[in-house]
Amino acid sequence: MRPLIDMRSIQKSFGTNIVLNGVDFEVLPGEVHALMGENGAGKSTLIKVLTGIYDRDGGTIVVNGRDVHYRHPKEAERDGIVVIHQELNIIPTLTVAENIFLGREPKIGRTGVIRYKEMEQQAAAHLRRLGMDLNPRELAGRLSVGKQQMIEIARAISTNAKCLIMDEPTAALTEREIQALFSVIQTLKEQGIAIVYISHRMEEIFTICDRISVLRDGQFIGTKRVKETNVDEIVQMMVGRQIGERFPKRRVTIGEERLRVERLTKIGVFENVSFSVRAGEVLGVAGLMGSGRTEIMEAIFGARPFDEGDIYIDGRPVRIRSPRQAVEHGIAMITEDRKQKGLVLEMSVHENLTLPKLEQLATAGFIQSSKERDVVLSFIHLLNIKTSSPDLAVKALSGGNQQKVVFGKWLAMNPRILILDEPTRGVDVGAKKEIYEIINELAAQGVAIVMVSSELPEVLGMSDRVMVIHEGNVQAVLENDGLDQETIMRAATGGNR
Amino acid sequence: MMEAKRKWDVKKLGPLIGLVLLCMVLSVLSDDFLTMDNWLNLLRQVSINALIAFGMTFVILTGGIDLSVGSVLALSSAITAGMMAQGINGFVAIFVGLLAGTAMGVLNGVLITKGKVAPFIATLATMTAFRGLTLVYTDGRPVTGFASSDILFQMMGRGYFFGIPVPIILMLVVYLVLYIALKKTTFGRHTYAIGGNEEASRLSGLRVDRLKMYVYALTGALSALAGLILTSRLNSAQPTAGTAYELDAIAAVVLGGTSLSGGKGWIFGTLVGALMIGVLNNGLNLLNVSSFYQQVIKGAVILLAVLLDRRKEA
Ligand SMILES: Nc1ncnc2c1ncn2[C@@H]1O[C@H](COP(=O)(O)OP(=O)(O)OP(=O)(O)O)[C@@H](O)[C@H]1O
Ligand SMILES: [Mg+2]
């Protein structure tokens, strides 16, 4: 079969940093092709080179047997190659149909007057083709992230896309939405549309993909058929070594109670939330997306107000009304949305790392550059952050490395209580394990840890106990002793405990 | 590592190159331009706009704007002048004037942080209100009658120190202090952080509201200082003094390459921007260009500079 896309010996550097070094990548019509590799391996860059966002330094790209050199993603779109980025491009104040046809609205002659009826009918048809039942007149902003993503997919197929590229599409989706996305992918595949799928989630890749290509440090390592390989082999290809157990074992003596929350309530969001965590303990928090997990954690951290309830640290009641007060009480929080809430993207790795504890690194307001430098370098080293320089803007880092910066930023202040909200979202297997090891190390030092996560294997692999949230209520608190995913899911969907 | 830094610096030289080019052109067109007298005069004029623009740089770096600077200048000048006209000691009057400017800045800060009013709206309102208060206080007439009353006050606008006019020295001292504050202190770093991502800064435990308050207070104080220089030079406080000064200040900040959306910029650029505006005003005067055309040319230069800056970024 002639490949739809054939990239050969692709070369790309930023300054002296070689990001792609002789990468080959081939996509066949109608296949689902996973692109895998550690954070910073060059996956997103490869896609940006393909669609002309970045200019390549060398190599050839053949699409449909024709040599191409796109200068703009629009040109790639004309050849049927459409990228769905992790940050969705949806205008929330427009309707579903308006979003799907943005810039390509059917008009009456040349008047600029939109034929709404026709547009809405066509939009509905495209959505049906995806098996989606969505009202084209609904405002896009009212829909869940999963449905907004469907709008983007509908927009793509409405342009007669032949190849859809999805960069970490499931990072912000609920379990149910992920299932819906998979069935859409299946449908598209049957219609002969090729899909390039970038993800760090092994389980997903092995469920829906036909082939897997692996990059490591900008090098092309190989392409395997899913049927002829296994997780261990792929991981080996990605990291170039055996990583062993996914969840490192730990031995910790659990100490005194550190944090206790009683009857925390924000009317309409969460109610009567009570729990406690002890020094050295990891409390996993499971629940569906939108169940109020993030809101509860943000309330404890002082980032959003609550109506009632008490918070105790070391048995003493505390008043936390702002993140600053939380930080003063030794609480750190790693937020789930690193771009909006975790990082100052324009600032350097260095400046982001020291942001919460800058005052400790200063005398009379003057920053002690050498002291700061030492802290920065030690955390870049400790967390193995891949950056060409501490002075690089964090926005230039790969997603996983950005997450490590968020981590480092909070570790630098030596927290006593650490709240983690989706700590490994968008992080590769190797780095995930490094993060798990850091979490264990912190627990061993006596930090009390609350870890919200949508990845059940992670919750089961890391926690001492698991608290399950359902519609803003604590549905269950389970000892992690022979606990399985089904039990958690049952509680998370409101089933009996 | 070094490479990333150096590249940035080259990019930052743009405004400076613009200023040098402008000076070269003017020195060819006018024989008077490159004289010592003219430059001392020019810099003395620049100092007023520069002081206001330094404060404005901080405000804009946090993602805000302050339209009230001209009115703050007028009201605090009127207060100081009024006190001196009543025979109150110059030192006290100056102190009270600066304090009044600071207080007006704090009020802006309170409206913006506690009242959650958008900076544009909040300072638009105070701009009008402070101007109104000035007119009420002065009854719409210039405050005079304190000529040669106080040597300290005289010095501010008209004095010399080692042959250099005092306003220029004030401008340079303030510049140095703020340059260091922005580069070397937690205050400066936090200013950038808040402009870059306010929510992430808040969640990092920064005192966002307090810092914004400081920044508007600083701008208020510097506007008052600029007002005192102006009043001392004119020997009277005009109720309409400082009208439209906010525009020159914002123009200086933007010419210097600071982004209006916050988080990116530097104070050296603002100094250069203020000089560009000053040089342009001075040069066009020397060339006897009519004041109507002067405005057109100034507008065009600002546009050109900003357009060139955008081009580089793309
Ligand atoms: N605009 C840029 N300037 C400088 N370096 C860059 C730029 N964009 C990417 N890089 C560097 O290129 C490397 C590859 O980044 P890329 O985003 O392609 O990684 P990725 O494989 O998509 O990782 P992730 O899984 O974390 O998303 C990283 O080391 C990154 O720092
Ligand atoms: Mg990526």
UniProtKB/TrEMBL annotation, chain A:
<keyword id="KW-0813">Transport</keyword>
<dbReference type="InterPro" id="IPR003593">
    <property type="entry name" value="AAA+_ATPase"/>
</dbReference>
<dbReference type="InterPro" id="IPR003439">
    <property type="entry name" value="ABC_transporter-like_ATP-bd"/>
</dbReference>
<keyword id="KW-0547">Nucleotide-binding</keyword>
<dbReference type="GO" id="GO:0015749">
    <property type="term" value="P:monosaccharide transmembrane transport"/>
</dbReference>
<keyword id="KW-0762">Sugar transport</keyword>
<keyword id="KW-1278">Translocase</keyword>
<keyword id="KW-0067">ATP-binding</keyword>
<dbReference type="InterPro" id="IPR050107">
    <property type="entry name" value="ABC_carbohydrate_import_ATPase"/>
</dbReference>
<feature type="domain" description="ABC transporter">
    <location>
        <begin position="254"/>
        <end position="496"/>
    </location>
</feature>
<protein>
    <submittedName>
        <fullName>Ribose import ATP-binding protein RbsA</fullName>
    </submittedName>
</protein>
<dbReference type="InterPro" id="IPR017871">
    <property type="entry name" value="ABC_transporter-like_CS"/>
</dbReference>
<dbReference type="GO" id="GO:0016887">
    <property type="term" value="F:ATP hydrolysis activity"/>
</dbReference>
<keyword id="KW-1003">Cell membrane</keyword>
<dbReference type="GO" id="GO:0005886">
    <property type="term" value="C:plasma membrane"/>
</dbReference>
<feature type="domain" description="ABC transporter">
    <location>
        <begin position="5"/>
        <end position="242"/>
    </location>
</feature>
<keyword id="KW-0677">Repeat</keyword>
<dbReference type="GO" id="GO:0005524">
    <property type="term" value="F:ATP binding"/>
</dbReference>
<dbReference type="InterPro" id="IPR027417">
    <property type="entry name" value="P-loop_NTPase"/>
</dbReference>
<dbReference type="Pfam" id="PF00005">
    <property type="entry name" value="ABC_tran"/>
</dbReference>
<keyword id="KW-0472">Membrane</keyword>
Automatic annotation (TrEMBL), chain B:
<keyword id="KW-1133">Transmembrane helix</keyword>
<protein>
    <submittedName>
        <fullName>Ribose ABC transporter permease</fullName>
    </submittedName>
</protein>
<dbReference type="Pfam" id="PF02653">
    <property type="entry name" value="BPD_transp_2"/>
</dbReference>
<feature type="transmembrane region" description="Helical">
    <location>
        <begin position="46"/>
        <end position="75"/>
    </location>
</feature>
<feature type="transmembrane region" description="Helical">
    <location>
        <begin position="213"/>
        <end position="231"/>
    </location>
</feature>
<dbReference type="GO" id="GO:0005886">
    <property type="term" value="C:plasma membrane"/>
</dbReference>
<feature type="transmembrane region" description="Helical">
    <location>
        <begin position="87"/>
        <end position="111"/>
    </location>
</feature>
<keyword id="KW-1003">Cell membrane</keyword>
<feature type="transmembrane region" description="Helical">
    <location>
        <begin position="265"/>
        <end position="284"/>
    </location>
</feature>
<keyword id="KW-0472">Membrane</keyword>
<keyword id="KW-0812">Transmembrane</keyword>
<dbReference type="InterPro" id="IPR001851">
    <property type="entry name" value="ABC_transp_permease"/>
</dbReference>
<dbReference type="GO" id="GO:0022857">
    <property type="term" value="F:transmembrane transporter activity"/>
</dbReference>
<feature type="transmembrane region" description="Helical">
    <location>
        <begin position="159"/>
        <end position="182"/>
    </location>
</feature>
